[in-house]
Write the structure tokens for this entry.
Amino acid sequence: MAHLALLAFWHLGSASMLLWAAAALLPILIHLWSRRRYQSTDWAAMTFLMAALRQNARRVRLEQWLLLAVRTAMLLLFALALADPMSSVLSSIRGAGQGGQTHTLLVLDGSYSMDYRDQTETRFERAKQYARELVENASQGDGFTILMLAEPPKVIVGQPAFDRSDLLQEIDALTLTHSAADLPATLAAAEAIVRETDERYPRLARRQVVFLTDLQRSTWEHAAAAEGRARLRRLAELATLSVVDLGGAADKNVTVTRFESQQPIATVGGTNTFQVEVQNHSAEGVRGERVTLRVDGQLVAEQRVDLQPAERATISFDHRFDSPGEHMVEVRLAEDRLEVDNHRWLSVPVQETIRVLCVYGQPGETNYLALALEPQEGAERRVKAQQAAESAIVESDLENYDCVVLSNVGRINRDEAAVLRRFVTRGGGLIVFLGDRVQADSYNQQLGELAGDARLLPASLGETSSESQYRLNPLDYRHSIVSPFRGHEKSGLLTTPIWSYIRLQPSSGAKVALAFDNGDPALVEEQIGQGRVILFASAASPLSVNRTSNPPTPWTAIASWPSFPPLVQEMLNLSLSGRTAGRNQIVGDDLRGDVSKATPETPVEIVLPDGQEERLPLVMDAAGAHWFFTSATQSGPYEVKIGSPVSTVERFALNIDPRESDLERLSFDSLPPELTSEPAKGGTRPTSFGEPLSRSYFRELLLAVIGLALVDVMLAWRLGRGAA
Amino acid sequence: MESSRTSFDPQTLAKLQGLHLRARHIVEGYVAGLHRSPYHGFSIEFAEHREYSPGDDLRYVDWKVFGRTDKHYLKQYEDETNLLCYLVLDTSESMLYRGPKSALSKAEYAQCLAAALSWLVLQQQDSVGLVTYDSQIRQFIRPSSNATHLQNLLQVMEKSPAGKKTNSGPIFHELAERLTRRGLVIVLSDFFDDVPSLLAGLKHLRHRRHDVVLFHVLDAAEIEFPFQSPTEFKGLEAMPHVVADPQMLRKAYLKEFQAYEHALLKGCRSHGIEVRRMRTDQPLDVALTSFLAERRIRVA
């Protein structure tokens, strides 16, 4: 082995530990100190003592020095062992230095693409089997940590575990998440684990990170990007990186990529249109793919669709709900090898009607609005609009309404602002029309930028414009409120007569849906909390007039214009989007809900897609009672049961991120060179990953220290201690 | 008189009440009772008769009683020996040593021992004398059996100043010349001296037909050398000071000490001298009782 030692590079795992070598001075100092410090006694039998001294002086001195040398060497070697000297052996003699203990970080791809079933088992099951073999074949003293590549990454074993049975139990208990994969965040977590382990366990001289993945492009393209390369380079400086490719050619995968209701709030008897987008991720076309719609588990509609390779198609289902309440709608495709993306769910709370509170500044201001909101009559009517004076803002229970419309309300006081804010942040819709009674300062103070965190309006109110003939600019119909007007230029939107308006200064997060022909914003909206606020710069009735002219000129004639009813309906639809926004989420998002009239003892339980139930804590704060569920990893329907005295059931749908459904793989060659490839098949564990190999001499040095300790005991015994 | 009270500790003396010091050898004068005396014509005092048993000396049969009673009775006499006991006490500086676990120094222990012996000897109407010495004889008190003699002896013991060095050999030679009447010579010392010279002196005493007993007074520390930490040993009797690690020297010291003790014992045994090791950590009464019991067995 002498020639191997010549090829080895020596370095220390924890050089700072060498400072402990200073402790080697202790025996010398103790020796010198003890020579200066002795007890004193008279002695009669001096003849014998002097004779003993004469005979043994040389031997005693020699043994004293020997004892001192042994103790000093013992402390020096112990400090050296703590410093963990290692020899790194060149790759040409790979394997010669084996024997050092290894820290292996297993990174299992937990994104749902790993649920693809190749033969009889899924790729995730193969990853677990591979991880099992790595653990079972590990050397004594090797440590393992486990990390799940997911969004967000999930740390399974963050500190090195050395017990095989514990590790195997952890691996067996791993379940696939229905999330996508966040490679940058996972690499950051891996780096943190390796660094921490390196500091805490210096004896784990070898470090390796093993990625067990299907190399899906949507996940690994981040590794090929500049940021990903930088992260991998940093990680490679700490450990050898290996990729076990568990992916393969996918023969067929059709996915539901989008499932939406066209109506923000479904009403009983109203026609609800569901749009379904399906995509063929296969290299071959698909004919007659069966798409079914199920409501509360019952099959209600079915369509078939032909899809060319990589083609995306949208189909619609119409459905009428017969009863109000919480409904779960599911769209389902025929089974294929990746089952998890063949479903998509939608939580649809169905109401008798949409309830709108129209608040006027003076009577008659909201007549046209109510008519535009509620064009149908009788049993067919979808919206129920109630007109009320501004005092209703604080006197009514806004929980009974889905949307509040303010029309030319002059001032907003603090209490009204608080009530409106609470209503909007919980998902309510607020539509604000201005007018001649509006005091801009009051709006800005209570609802605008001057309200700080309590801001509700998407824009600050400025001065009133000069009277002129203004026209609306649809801004290329980009916004959802005006997009239905595209192609209907004669519907009156572009000719809507407006002579006065209040200049708006949109906030940074607001969107401008309509503008005036001079460029000033006319219609601005913004999501506030869970709800949405829409602000129109002019009035909603002809009662607002400019009294400076003679005769007084109305602000606008929009209320009697044909574009008004569809515009108001689109505004209503958008304002209501927050009512059900929290009901339909992507896996990885948190589920939350507000509970009115709850007590701290009110029980809240959530039923998971697999039928398991969990009790959720109820958080009480100044804004009311809330519950949170942050550990949802499965897609599907979730049901939250709120007990007495509330006694309601709310349904939620968590769906997969459709980007993960594209099983296109990244070739290994396009990955950064820091990653080495390891065979995924064959069943035997690779004996080593990466290079160079290094060997720790911690154990040998520790044995030497123990040996010297034994020599010390024997010497001490020989020098008199043992006989004493 | 603190030491006197210690020497005459009632508990110690109570244990010695039933014992009688018996001369091991026939000394000058005669002894009635248990031992035959080579010297006739000394006065004896009749005590009682006892019935004859086989083995008794026929010379002590009271024939007059036999004539009257037709039974054999022996005449019993009070022991009225004129035993001479010389207590020779070492008062050199080495006798002042007191070990860490001892209550008395060797000198104090030897004084107690001498006092007790004096008291015992005087109790049985014998004579006791005292010699103190270091490099030369410091006090010489002639033997006497007078009851008031004890106080005199005790005062001398207590007031004996500690000398510097021991020079036992010449001292014993001088004593052999001065002690003209044969007797029991009890030497109380640590005998840290030149052994051949010492033995020569003792041999001279034996030559003068004295019964010689050595009370070898030693401290436990001198026997066991129990020191652990580095120690400065301050030599007594003008010996140098030495700093040493006792743990490393213990074996060698014990070897030297045992060699010395062996030489002393062997030399004494060859000259018929009894040696008793007296540890200063042993109770004085136990040591005395053991000694006297053995002496009685030997004499009987």
Confidence is low (pLDDT under 50) at residues 1-44 of chain B.
